[in-house]
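Structure first, sequence second, as always.
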């Protein structure tokens, strides 16, 4: 890509560059000396980006040969000029170089923005961030709506399952409540009764046998049974409560 500029500026991958052939021509230097200068200070030039090169066939005294030349970006070209000895030709080239890069960037900027593409790097970053942000928010709201719908479906399914199996649940509760206590539950009740009897005998200063007899009597009376061994599983939790609240205040 070329345009009417003080000196020839090309564009490679949307980046303005100047070839060392143009630099040599406008500063009246041998191209070989320009190329060797860049290669001698390659690390300096690489600080401003990769220094690309191309090969071009050219007629020489020895016949047709490929000439290697470099394409420099604005910073690299400016650095190169600082390495050249100043004279009128070099000073004129410096001014033209600044103008040429400025005009080319303006032209590129206008073309890219016409296509809806920001040329400035910060604009590119902001555009990318906004695009990702919008996509993220859209995805977030979609997921949120889907989660709401999923929760609603799960609630409905659970409600239906419970409704359909309510009779079964009621029957299960009934079976549990009329089932005899397990050996483990009987042992727990017995231990709780003995511990309560010890507590009462100490606090009320009565014999242990009287305290434990009182607890058994209260349990049997509360449930209307002959022996606490006849308690059902449905009575288990309440029986623990009754044992814990046995009192001898009425006298023993």
């Amino acid at each position: 890509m070329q345009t009417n500029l003080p000196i020839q500026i090309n564009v490679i991958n949307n980046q303005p560059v100047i070839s060392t052939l143009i630099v040599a021509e406008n500063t009246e230097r041998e191209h070989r000396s320009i190329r060797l200068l860049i290669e001698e200070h390659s690390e300096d030039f690489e600080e401003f980006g990769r220094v690309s090169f191309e090969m071009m066939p050219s007629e020489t005294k020895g016949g047709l040969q490929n000439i290697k030349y470099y394409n420099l970006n604005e910073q690299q070209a400016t650095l190169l000029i600082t390495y050249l000895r100043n004279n009128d030709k070099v000073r004129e080239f410096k001014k033209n170089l600044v103008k040429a890069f400025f005009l080319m960037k303006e032209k590129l900027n206008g073309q890219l923005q016409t296509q809806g593409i920001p040329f400035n790097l910060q604009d590119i970053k902001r555009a990318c961030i906004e695009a990702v942000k919008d996509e993220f928010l859209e995805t977030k709201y979609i997921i949120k709506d889907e989660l709401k719908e999923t929760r609603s479906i799960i609630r409905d399914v659970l409600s239906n399952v419970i409704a359909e199996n309510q009779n079964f649940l009621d029957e299960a509760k009934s079976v549990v409540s009329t089932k005899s206590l397990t050996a483990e539950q009987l042992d727990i009740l017995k231990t709780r009764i003995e511990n309560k009897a010890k507590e009462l005998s100490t606090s009320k200063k009565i014999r242990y046998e009287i305290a434990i007899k009182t607890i058994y009597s209260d349990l049997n009376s509360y449930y209307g049974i002959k022996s606490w061994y006849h308690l059902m599983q449905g009575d288990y939790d309440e029986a623990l409560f009754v044992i814990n609240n046995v009192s001898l205040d009425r006298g023993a």
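Margin note: The CA atoms of residues 19 and 71 lie 4 Å apart.
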